[in-house]
């Protein structure tokens, strides 16, 4: 009797183990089910490269290039800000901060990671947006720039903690060897530890960017939601000083109005497929880098 | 060659600056919300329904809705997540299938929250015909927090020394007896930490619940899992962007309640984790 | 009278062969000392007898090991491990009270009655010569005991399930001489009712305690004979070399 009970439990354990594969596949399947239906009406190339997104016009124009570029611009901006600052902070916490301060800092970073994105979007709306408007003298502060700054904030905890893990797993002998040869702490960090931790840091950056691309609420609340291809001019800070709309914000803002089964509905799912594929690619690559890092050591 | 000590001082200064650049704004954000939101917090705010098109009154239905959603999410995610973690920690060998499982977990963790919303809509609301409901929302959130539960539970299980398992097995106990009597009890604090972190995440998410459960305005509380519900994150979004002329302190107050809820849960989880590490008898 | 019959036992972990063509018999109620330098295969050998090697995923074996005529690979492994108990090199109490540690094995095998369990715990602690030292504090954590006491606790825990054979895998390696003497004493008294196999790095301990002694080197059984003979006039030169400390 005991044996039978154990057999059942072990089968349950195995099934649960497989659950995550099951859910990933399920998510992808359902996205495909609704999203591929779009391509009965629109061809995929036009969808991805079309410059006009007017889903409620008659006939609907469903080109998502402005949205892709919107996501792209905001992500690049966030990356430019968050990568140097994030890696620098990881270095500081990992190598320089003394004991108790280190714990406090790590706690502070965890705190930032825990703040819900809608709260950050709200704060961004009431503080960052007006600030950007006045500092850069713009008609509105709802811009890609504001979005990039806020998203950089949201990416940094991920970058800091994964990079910090990578630095922590650099063998002590590398560091001690360099110091024993007379290098300063900084020289050791710059020439020995950073290169040694490079795949892990790269993974950290990728995961951070993945977080940025996938972010919805904060972006929706501060980038202005204008589905127009950003004009890249010097005068508008290379595209940053204008409103943009990202793929994520589009889905979130329009799904409520799209009729189930309409072309608009399918189009939003198709955007979902694009997002899913992008985040899948980023996650797999980042995981490969992390795996490589572990193997090396 | 430039003085390396000087370069070091400069470099370290910038590193410190970078750290401040992250940490100081976090503090500021919390302070601003607390200072501007506290005036709104009183018993009425927490226990009353929104009135005057949400420009006055309270946020009680949103609090209740969030509680229901989070509870539903954990009822779904904890059993499956814990069993999956047991599989990975105690049964799985280093083979291709298990590499794929681990990759799947990483991927589930990385799926954008709005894509979870789409998925929940397509599967639970439309396909299973649950409609926009607490059931749909909880299940969607549950799948979303599954990776967190699995990863933290697995770490907790793996931190139990292998020697305990060997001793138990050498006395003739079965594998499952060993897990149940020796491994699990010693991993419970870590599992609880992970659960609370998952709860915190589920409480703060908006996008997954946008199309699966969230109601713009619902004066009466939901009576069954097939009802829609209001929720704190969505409510904050609505009163910040969809409803004009809401008193500033109501917005900050709502943000404060949500922030306190999420941060409190994270704090509890961290404290449990810290105490567990200190108390470990081995 | 033969307890274990081992025939042509080869063991691999992955591609590495750890035991080569080992054949021997272990007699009932004897103490068999197993000696040899590091990596001679003696721990792998002893762990074969209660199938603890199964826990490693790249374990492979050929040959047969029989416990009183039954092939141990065909027996229910949990029952086998109840019959063949093991005391490990480091004292390994479970994170439980002294009482619960000793009761753990019998509880897993189904004993629920409280007073029967108490009886078993008392009996086992007495057999391990630990009862007097802990009888007033059975509810305390096992970690509060000294190293030697913890090891005797582990012996009591193993005795509680009433095995037929007890395997000792370098049980005194972390212990001071007095605790070591107590453990050796316990072994000699247990011999009457149990078959004992002792793996040890301490050649003198093997001589003190074992009725017969087996010498392993690089995975092979070199010599197995009465302890007196092994230590005075061994047949193989290598045995002689190891015992005298010329290598190992």
Overall spatial form of chain A = globular
Query: What is the CATH topology assignment of chain B?
Result: MetI-like fold
What value does the average pLDDT of chain B take? 89
First-last Cα distance of chain A = 47 Å
CATH-defined superfamily of chain A: MetI-like
Strand order of the largest sheet of chain A: 1-2
Structural class of chain A: mainly alpha
User: Which spans of chain A of ≥5 residues are poorly predicted at pLDDT below 50?
Assistant: none
Under CATH, the topology of chain A can be stated as MetI-like fold
Q: Separation of termini of chain B? A: 52 Å
CATH H-level homologous superfamily name of chain B: MetI-like
Question: Main beta sheet of chain B: strand number and arrangement?
Answer: 2 strands, antiparallel
Number of H/I helices of chain A: 12
Q: What's the total number of strands of chain A?
A: 2
Structural class of chain B: mainly alpha
The helical percent of chain B reads: over 70%
Please compute the radius of gyration of chain A using only Cα atoms: 23 Å
Tally of individual helices of chain B = 11
Strand order of the largest sheet of chain B: 1-2
Number of domains of chain A: 1
Question: Could you describe the 3D structure shown?
Answer:
- The complex is a heterotrimer of chains A (297), B (282) and C (248).
- With 297 residues, chain A is an all-alpha fold.
- In chain A, 73% of the residues lie in helices and 1% in strands.
- Chain A is built from 12 helices and 2 strands; from the N terminus they run H-H-E-E-H-H-H-H-H-H-H-H-H-H.
- A two-stranded antiparallel ribbon of chain A has the order 1-2.
- In chain B, 75% of the residues lie in helices and 1% in strands.
- Chain B contains 11 helices and 2 strands.
- Chain B has a two-stranded antiparallel sheet with strand order 1-2.
- The model of chain C has no long low-confidence stretch (mean pLDDT 91).
- The chains are: A mainly alpha (297), B mainly alpha (282), C alpha/beta (248).
- The interface between A and B is large, with 88 and 87 residues.
Short key terms for the protein model shown above:
heterotrimer, A: 297 residues, mainly alpha, MetI-like fold, two-stranded antiparallel sheet, 12 helices, 2 strands, globular, C: 248 residues, 6-stranded mixed sheet, 37% helix
Strand-helix topology:
The complex is a heterotrimer of chains A (297), B (282) and C (248).
Chain A: H1 2-35, H2 44-49, E1 53-54, E2 61-62, H3 65-96, H4 99-114, H5 117-135, H6 144-168, H7 172-180, H8 185-196, H9 198-214, H10 217-222, H11 247-254, H12 263-296
Antiparallel strand pairs in A: 1-2
Helix pairs in contact in A: 1-12, 3-6, 3-9, 4-6, 5-6, 6-9, 7-8, 9-12, 11-12
Chain B: H1 4-37, H2 43-47, E1 50-51, E2 56-57, H3 60-91, H4 96-110, H5 113-127, H6 134-158, H7 162-170, H8 175-204, H9 207-210, H10 232-241, H11 248-279
Antiparallel strand pairs in B: 1-2
Helix pairs in contact in B: 1-11, 3-6, 3-8, 3-10, 4-6, 5-6, 6-8, 7-8, 8-11, 10-11
Chain C: E1 2-13, E2 16-27, E3 31-35, H1 42-49, E4 59-67, E5 70-71, H2 77-83, E6 84-87, H3 98-108, H4 114-127, H5 131-134, H6 147-160, E7 165-169, H7 177-190, E8 195-199, H8 203-209, E9 212-217, E10 220-226, H9 227-232, H10 237-243
Parallel strand pairs in C: 3-8, 3-9, 6-7, 7-8
Antiparallel strand pairs in C: 1-2, 1-4, 4-5, 9-10
Helix pairs in contact in C: 3-4, 3-6, 4-6, 6-7
